[in-house]
Specification:
The complex is a heterodimer of chains A (about 425) and B (about 260).
Chain A: H1 9-14, H2 25-40, E1 65-66, E2 91-95, E3 98-99, E4 114-117, H3 118-121, H4 126-132, H5 142-149, E5 155-159, E6 169-175, E7 182-184, E8 187-192, E9 197-206, E10 212-222, E11 227-235, E12 241-250, E13 255-262, E14 267-276, E15 282-291, E16 296-305, E17 311-320, E18 325-334, E19 342-351, E20 357-366, E21 372-380, H6 384-391, H7 397-413, H8 419-435
Parallel strand pairs in A: 1-7, 2-6, 5-8, 6-9, 7-10, 8-10, 9-11, 10-12, 11-13, 12-14, 13-15, 14-16, 15-17, 16-18, 17-19, 18-20, 19-21
Antiparallel strand pairs in A: 2-3, 4-5
Chain B: E1 8-19, E2 22-33, E3 37-41, H1 48-56, E4 62-70, E5 73-74, H2 80-85, E6 88-91, E7 98-102, H3 103-118, H4 125-138, E8 149-150, H5 156-170, E9 174-178, H6 186-199, E10 205-210, E11 223-228, E12 231-236, H7 238-247, H8 250-257
Parallel strand pairs in B: 3-10, 3-11, 6-9, 9-10
Antiparallel strand pairs in B: 1-2, 1-4, 4-5, 7-8, 11-12
Helix pairs in contact in B: 5-6
The chains are: A alpha/beta (about 425), B alpha/beta (about 260).
Chain lengths: ~425, ~260
């Protein structure tokens, strides 16, 4: 794999300096292979179809270095605002990408459920990890390859067959946001066994405002008849960069229910690819991006119906204020074999300022002939008639505006299946709206 | 209900208003006293709904002439929210849906805004729950509607009932009902009308804008006005409504032109 098409100095500079981070030989080989691939790939620009709406060139202006082991100093009290009562003993915490055992607890998880640091659990679960790690995320994505070249600490969650996990599992990635520009490579690997049921919260937060770059990869396999609820929260620091990639495989009759919220980062990108690999699988993807200032949030999703009788429902909402920019590109493939697919996609966008920008591109590609598919996209401003309705009930212009923005967003937050999180996010939402009123 | 020395609540003089440069109201005159129910009838496009919206302060319309004195204040100087706080209420012909905001929190927000303005006591969610459940009975509304998003997925009748519920909560001095009866089946109409009747007191007043005489079988007006081409061209008692029902509107226009 020494085929060097174009070496990009910035990308090469991000590759690990040492040969490996220990672990089994196959893992080292995986890392090296990914590093080689990085050398053959280029930094995405607006000339690439998949990046045509988003200018990430700002990211290249900073030389990021992998975080040092910074996890030691923090205590649970220091991260209290991120702790959820429902997941107080089902939480894995990573500080700048490094696992923090003193902040983590898995005491509330049922017998047999594995939730821990990938590097540590590898010894006991080598077979499962090897079967799933880097099998789903597209290695041709340069940030996925970068992440894989750095695989070390990460979250491993294995739910055994027919096991119901009664508490949500909180995967908390905290960036300390220090002075030095850090590169952070979070990794999550989740396998929900046949007939199992769990709720995952993948949560990216920051302690400080510093400039750092998170390049995260999450791979989820939902086995036959299993059900996974996945809440993904991107609440990075305002100056940060976030590149998140999620790959989900759905087996027969499984259910995947995702809620993705994007509030943070200066520039962010979220790719989510869901492949329906077994008949009768169902996925629900809800997304919300709330942008202000000069933020950019680019969401690319793919739902790939490859087999019959699949169902997918997607609702993505963006709220854009000031000079912010939101991008949504949602592809739905219905392959030739995927008869009786039922797919619905909606992109709803609220544009609050003349300087803001929304690019939305729903895309249906249907190769089967007996399917039910719909999609739609709207970009709207606050409507005069809605404002008048609220004014006529005594609410002044600011209160009416805030309520309408809140309502637009709350529609998504309300679908989050963890009560305390829902409450907190509603509060955070109000605060963010008031900040910009 | 009416006595000649009742207080004047609303005095509209030569009101002219336009939208997009087109004049819709062409000199409306109307006096409403406390305790009175006024019906404004007229064919489609006569300016009835525009009149309601202009009174409530819709920013899309420009008032080009005339004045509206409400309880001694120049109503046209006030933005919509201040008119509402002063006790002007518009029941919308097409109530807006607000997905994401529960009916109860919306009603509480509106109620507390009014209370703050009136110097009254604001209610917390628990206190408000008791208060609103009582009000729901007035329009025979299932309290389950309180937990649903405002008007979202409500049927036409449910939306109209929700408007009257808001009226019950806000306790306005002047209520304007814009085509509240249109699109209602007879049961819904009966419920809405009975709610409205219970809310009438000697101290408040109501303007009903309607296309049909049917509503007036349930809510008895003291005055019936006929609107045509942006002006009130005839005023009479409740018997006028019956005559309109029997003879249509054309004779009124002929009479007014004569």
């Amino acid at each position: 794999m020494q085929n060097i098409e174009s070496r990009d100095a910035w990308l090469t500079g991000l590759l690990p300096q040492t040969a490996g981070f220990a672990g089994p030989q196959w893992l080292d080989a995986l890392r090296l292979e990914a590093a080689d691939r990085v050398n053959t790939l280029h930094f995405p620009t607006m000339r690439d179809e998949d990046w045509r709406f988003s200018d990430f060139s700002l990211l290249r202006k900073t030389a990021f270095a992998v975080a040092e082991d910074a996890a030691s100093g923090l205590t649970p009290a220091g991260i209290e605002s991120f702790i959820l009562p429902e997941a107080v003993a089902s939480r894995l915490v990573f500080i700048d990408g490094v696992y923090a055992p003193q902040l983590s607890s898995t005491a509330a998880l049922p017998q047999g459920v594995v939730a821990g640091n990938l590097m540590r659990e590898l010894t006991a679960h080598d077979g499962a990890v090897r079967a799933h790690l880097a099998r789903q995320a597209h290695q041709s994505d340069v940030f996925v390859a970068l992440n894989t070249s750095h695989v070390r600490d990460g979250a491993l969650v294995l739910i055994p067959k027919d096991t119901v996990c009664p508490v949500p599992i909180h995967l908390l990635f905290i960036a300390t946001g220090g002075d030095a520009p850090q590169a952070i490579y979070p990794r999550c690997l989740i396998v929900a066994g046949p007939g199992s049921d769990c709720t995952l919260i993948e949560d990216y937060v920051a302690l400080g405002p510093g400039s750092y770059c998170t390049a995260a990869v999450t791979e989820i396999t939902v086995e036959e008849n299993a059900s996974v609820r996945h809440i993904r929260l991107q609440r990075e620091a305002r100056g940060a960069f976030h590149l998140g990639y999620g790959a989900v495989t759905l087996k027969r009759d499984s259910i995947y229910h995702a809620n993705s919220l994007t509030f943070g980062a200066r520039l962010s990108r979220h790719d989510l690819r869901v492949v329906q690999d077994g008949e009768g699988a169902r996925c629900v993807l809800n997304g919300l991006a709330l942008m202000a200032g000069r933020q950019l949030a680019d969401t690319h999703t793919v739902i790939d119906h490859t087999v019959p009788n699949g169902k997918s429902e997607q609702l993505h909402k963006c709220i854009v204020d000031d000079g912010a920019h939101a991008v949504f590109n949602g592809k739905i493939f219905v392959r030739k074999n995927a008869q009786h697919t039922d797919a619905a996609q909606q992109s709803r966008n609220l544009l609050l300022s003349n300087k803001g920008r929304v690019d939305t591109k729903p895309q249906l590609e249907i190769f089967a002939d007996d399917v039910k598919c719909s999609h739609g996209a709207t970009v709207s401003q606050l409507e005069a008639d809605e404002m008048f309705y609220l004014n006529s009930r005594g609410l002044d212009a600011d209160a009416a505006r805030n309520l309408l923005i809140y309502a637009f967003a709350e529609d998504i937050i309300d679908r989050i299946p963890v009560a305390s999180l829902k409450q907190r996010l509603s509060k955070e939402l109000s605060e963010r709206i008031l900040e910009h009123a | 209900m009416i006595s000649s020395n009742s207080r004047v609540i609303l005095e509209v003089r030569d009101l002219r208003a336009s939208i997009g440069g087109i004049e819709i109201l062409k000199g409306v005159n109307l006096t409403v006293r406390s305790g009175e129910v006024h019906a404004i009838m007229g064919p489609n496009g006569s300016g009835k709904s525009t009149f309601s919206k202009v009174l409530a302060g819709h920013p899309g319309y420009t008032v080009t002439r005339g004045e509206v004195i409400y309880n001694g204040k120049n109503l046209l100087d006030l933005p919509a929210e201040e008119r509402a706080r002063e006790g002007v209420f518009l029941a919308f012909q097409y109530p807006i849906e607000i997905p994401g905001v529960s009916n109860s929190s919306f009603l509480r927000l509106a109620y507390n805004t009014m209370q703050a303005h009136r110097g009254g006591e604001e209610l917390d969610p628990l206190e408000f729950d008791d208060f609103i459940r009582e009000k729901c009975k007035l329009v025979e509304m299932d309290p389950g509607f309180l937990d649903r998003s405002v008007n979202e997925g409500f049927s036409g009748g449910e939306k109209k009932r929700n408007e009257i519920l808001q009226m019950a909560v806000l306790e306005p001095k002047l209520s304007i009902l814009d085509e509240t009866d249109s699109g209602l089946d007879i049961d819904a109409l009966r419920i809405v009308a009975s709610g409205v009747n219970k809310l009438m007191t000697p101290d408040n007043a109501m303007i009903m804008v309607t296309h049909y005489q049917r509503l007036l079988n349930y809510i008895t007006p003291d005055f019936v006005h006929v609107m045509r081409s942006g002006r009130i061209i005839k005023t009479g008692g409740r018997e006028l409504a019956l005559e309109l029902e029997a003879r249509g509107y054309d004779w009124v226009r002929a009479e007014a032109a004569a």
